[in-house]
Amino acid sequence: MPLSACGAGREEARFDAFRDSLTDAAVTVTAEVTARDGEDVTAFTLSCTETDAGCDIEVLAPEEIQGVRAHLASGEAQMQFDDLILPMPQAEDAVSPLMALPMVLSAARTGHLDLVWQEDGLVCQLVPDDDSAVRIYLNEDNVPTAAEVDVGGHTCVFCTITAWSTEKSDLHESNDTNLGGDQP
Predict the structure, then answer these.
(1) How far, in Å, are 41, 77, 102, 103, 133 from residue 107 at the CA level?
(2) What residues does each domain of the chain span?
(3) Beta bridge partners of 131
(4) pTM for the predicted model, two decimal places
(5) Residue partners of 105: CB distance under 8 A and separation at least 6
(6) Is residue 153 within 8 Å of residue 142, measured between CB atoms?
(7) pLDDT, average across residues 104-120
(8) Is the pLDDT higher at 104 or at 88?
(9) How many angstroms separate the CA atoms of 101 and 55, rounded?
């Protein structure tokens, strides 16, 4: 028996409403981030805030590295602790836990919507580039509650979102000059 996609239009419209809520807004997100690299599992609590110069990430837990900050701008990252600032190279086949939340935010804004389905809320699979996928889980109020980042077909980072807020901003203004009407 063939499967029906009758609800797909509503689900896509719901995702579009979520994406539209990000227009003219800067996002701050806090999440429990768990990264898997083979048998190694690491867990962090991170906060990520969009700024006009990129994203600021702060480690909230574990306590041993609490207060470590990172800044990501145009694909380049640097880590800061007290007065020490270090560049953070990014491996092409993996996602650093510190880079996961900026990747989720970027995919939410610009990733191609590949799949959308209902599973204890709305699940949206986005494809930001050829080698990765980001799944964002939205609750009934269209607020993200979780995200997963896949690289090379393997889920490598899980994010349980504990706080998500948007603030009016001109960081992501539309540059679309064709606003409809009589323009060709």
Answers:
(1) 24, 18, 9, 6, 8
(2) 8-167
(3) none
(4) 0.83
(5) 27, 29, 48, 50, 55
(6) no
(7) 95
(8) 104
(9) 9
Average pLDDT, the chain: 84
Q: What is the reported pLDDT for 78? A: 74
Question: From CA 107, how far away is CA 103, in angstroms rounded?
Answer: 6
Contacts of 96 (CB under 8 A, 6+ apart): 35, 77, 88, 90
- Residue identified by tokens 């504990």 is 162
The fold for domain 8-167 equals: outer membrane lipoprotein receptor (LolB), chain A (2.50.20)
- Judged against a pLDDT cut of 60, whether residue 113 lies above it is answered with yes
Q: Which two tokens stand for residue 92?
A: 């092409």
H-helix or E-strand spanning residue 154: strand 154-168
Those residues whose C-beta lies under 8 Å from the C-beta of residue 182, and which sit 6 or more positions away, are none
